[in-house]
Amino acid sequence: MSEIALSVLDLVPVRTGQTSAEAIASSLSLAETADRLGYRRYWFAEHHNMPAVASTTPPVLIAAAATRTSQLRLGSGGVMLPNHAPLIVAEQFAALEAIAPGRIDLGLGRAPGSDPVITQLLRGSGTTSDVEQFPRHVQDIAALVSGEGATVRFTSGGEYTVRATPAATGAPEVWLLGSSDYSAQLAAAQGLPYVFANHFSGQGLERALDLYRTGYQPSEEHPAPRTFLTVNVVAAPTAEEAEARALPQLRMMARLRLNQPLVALETVEEAVAAETDAVTDQVIQAARSRWFVGTGASVAAEVRAFAETYGVDEVMLSPVAASYESEPRTTSPGRAQTLELIAAAL
Asked: Do residues 112 and 83 make contact, with C-beta atoms less than 8 angstroms apart?
């Protein structure tokens, strides 16, 4: 198999005692590390009202990362389109393309990225973000960010041209993201690149890829199906350290799955000392079975086997290594270590 390209997905984790400013500074430092190590992409997720996640606004974070990097493709993993008017999304990413030409990816998702209350607040401006209009809005955005723009046709017969930016010389690359059959089939029907959210779901990966590849309708920009995979990873000098650094995020996943109150991401010491129960342990073990946790060499081997099994030449790593209490709050030593060790081994 050809060399595997590595990319990064960042949710901008916020640990106990860390401010939002420190968490964002830490992620921007990690983006610089990924850029130096030769990673292909660095995507920011969109999540809202979560104590442990500061990635609320991918376009803002992408703009900040653009000023700190030179090689990485920067993007959203993804913008949750039902939360936003398509024209606003198109304008934001057209501006990002102007800031970092040829380096912007626009990943679009259909999920809300939060709880029902936040969803209603985000959609309070009207029905422009109706989730049922998702397929049409994806097409609209692709047209709006192009040099030609989109054409609005009135019932009277008149036409009106709309552009996300006055004089585009390039456009962000649009990707569809999802964890269901729906997104795979829509990406195939529209001839778009597609990413299955394996880091979050892990269920239905084989079926989604099969639906996407077998149903793909070639487009001018993408004559063949194109996809990569996401996975949660932790790498450390020893397997014991890697398991310890994985535990806080595993406990956070258990809270999500069990609908328990969310808190800032625990430090390693807090997670190790915390009381647990059989139900929580079962959820943790189920999640851990889908993560790659170990030394740089062992995780790299798992990443390579994963890529070969599903026929992809790129894997997007979500580095979920937590911090020890003594480690600085404006960097992520565990996450940086993960990226460095895996890159060195591959």
From this structure: yes
Q: What are phi and psi of 229, to 5 degrees?
A: -120, 150
Joined together, the tokens standing for residue 183 give 């997104």
pTM reported for the whole predicted model: 0.94
DSSP at 176 = E
The answer to whether 325 and 267 are in contact (CB under 8 A) is yes
Cβ 119 vs Cβ 83: under 8 Å: yes
Q: Is the distance from CB of 66 to CB of 74 less than 8 angstroms? A: yes
What CA–CA distance (Å, rounded) separates 81 from 253? 24
pLDDT-derived band of residue 113, with 50, 70 and 90 as boundaries?
A: low
Mean pLDDT over the full length of the chain: 93
Helix (H) or strand (E) holding 263: none
Which residues are within 8 A (CB) of 70 and not within 5 positions of it... i.e. 6 or more apart? Answer: 35
User: Per residue in 226-244, pLDDT tens?
Assistant: 999 999 999 999 999 999 9
Count other C-beta atoms under 10 Å from residue 307's C-beta.
22
- Residue 162 is given by DSSP the state E
Q: Are 255 and 315 in contact (CB under 8 A)?
A: no
First to last CA, the chain: 12
